User: Which sequence fits this backbone?
């Protein structure tokens, strides 16, 4: 297979070719102002991204991981608290919870959506927590510590089922921080409000990542906290800048996690294209769905619930032998990924949490079946057809093998 035929999982070179002039202009502008960190370029992007999310405030920070950590801290999570999330996510979700001084506990996901199961959350709150009369706080049986926040993850570009999660959170007094790092522009139909809502506008606050490979990516590291809560926005602004309100007057101990002007300018230029790019991703996903429909016995396409409009950060199929399929495609120049091969509760880094295989069967089964196919706005029709044909080839060949074996 020639190099020219190689189809990457994500192509960050073609995406930037079409924007090169705009991005060079941004760099030149910043060089001329000398305002490298913070400043008008950053503020201008923040207000545009808040508007894009249908939210009141956006505070740019150094990464998605920091956005989540600072949102949790500003939202009121305290040292020692327990924060609920899911086991099938990027490790940054758990890292941010721990770096905010808390500890994660997990609720399993749903098979079809790969996002937090509302029934699972209800069972967790009813059976694994109790109301401690002395402290007056919801307390985890496992850790004997207050359970204060919920982090639903809008995975692969699709929002978690927010209505039931929000109503449970309200009933139990939990702060909701959305991990929207893979869901820029995703939408959710709230039955409670009878309206479509944007990712990042539903919880107390949300974390976005602008890592280069995300739907909206910087040319380096960047992230943002989005919120309708002015207090949270102000607190994140203080935390990201060494806890200072006035220069060298430190109200609290913060950190250095500011957004720089070049990244903000680049993000602002790209934000204009994001609706069109997300539309392209949805078209590509629909086309993959049509290609794989006849293979439903072998390939399970991603499910989009009637209440969700995914922005397909990833296009994730299920197959019984995803690693064999991945090798087959790699040999034909098609790069796939697995997001993620090991659920967080089984990661070596979190052995201290003492979870075991079997604790979250839905997420564990998903981890053994998922495969992410190439998807990015500039993926051509020919490239997509090639991916489809190669998957088709594989399924037909393996069907023959199965027949041969049973004969
Ligand atoms: C990318 C990502 C993060 C972290 O964002 P960074 O900008 O890489 O720090 C957090 N959560 C999820 C689900 C992500 O995909």
Assistant:
């Amino acid at each position: 297979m020639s190099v020219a035929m190689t189809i990457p999982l994500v192509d960050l070179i073609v995406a930037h070719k079409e924007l090169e002039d705009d991005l060079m202009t941004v760099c030149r502008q910043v060089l001329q102002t000398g305002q490298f960190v913070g400043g008008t370029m950053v503020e201008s992007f923040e207000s545009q991204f808040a508007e894009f999310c249908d939210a009141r405030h956006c505070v740019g920070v150094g990464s998605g991981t920091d956005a989540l950590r600072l949102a949790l801290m500003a939202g009121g999570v305290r040292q020692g608290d327990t924060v609920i999330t899911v086991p099938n996510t990027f490790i940054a979700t758990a890292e941010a919870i721990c770096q905010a001084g808390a500890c994660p506990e997990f609720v399993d996901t749903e098979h079809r959506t790969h996002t937090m199961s509302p029934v699972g959350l209800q069972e967790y709150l009813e059976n694994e927590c109790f109301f401690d009369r002395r402290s007056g706080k919801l307390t985890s049986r496992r850790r004997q510590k207050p359970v204060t926040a919920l982090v639903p993850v809008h995975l692969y570009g699709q929002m978690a089922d927010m209505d039931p999660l929000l109503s449970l959170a309200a009933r139990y007094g939990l702060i909701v921080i959305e991990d929207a790092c893979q869901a820029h522009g995703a939408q959710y139909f709230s039955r409670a409000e009878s309206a479509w809502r944007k990712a990042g506008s539903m919880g107390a606050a949300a974390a976005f990542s602008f890592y280069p490979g995300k739907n909206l990516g910087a040319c380096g590291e960047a992230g943002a906290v989005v919120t309708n809560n002015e207090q949270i926005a102000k607190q994140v602004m203080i935390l990201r800048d060494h806890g200072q309100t006035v220069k060298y007057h430190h109200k609290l101990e913060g950190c250095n996690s500011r957004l720089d002007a070049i990244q903000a300018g680049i993000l602002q230029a790209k934000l204009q294209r994001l609706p069109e790019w997300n539309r392209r991703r949805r078209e590509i996903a629909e086309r993959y769905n049509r290609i794989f429909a006849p293979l439903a016995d072998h390939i399970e396409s991603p499910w989009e619930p009637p209440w969700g409009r995914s922005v397909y950060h990833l296009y994730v199929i299920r197959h019984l032998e995803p690693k064999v399929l991945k090798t087959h495609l790699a040999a034909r120049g098609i790069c796939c990924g697995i997001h993620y091969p090991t659920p967080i509760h089984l990661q070596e880094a979190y052995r201290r949490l003492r979870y075991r295989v079997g604790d979250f069967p839905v997420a564990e089964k998903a981890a053994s079946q998922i495969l992410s196919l190439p998807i990015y706005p500039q993926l051509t029709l020919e490239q997509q057809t090639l991916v489809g044909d190669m998957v088709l080839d594989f399924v037909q060949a393996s069907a023959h093998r199965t027949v041969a074996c049973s004969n």
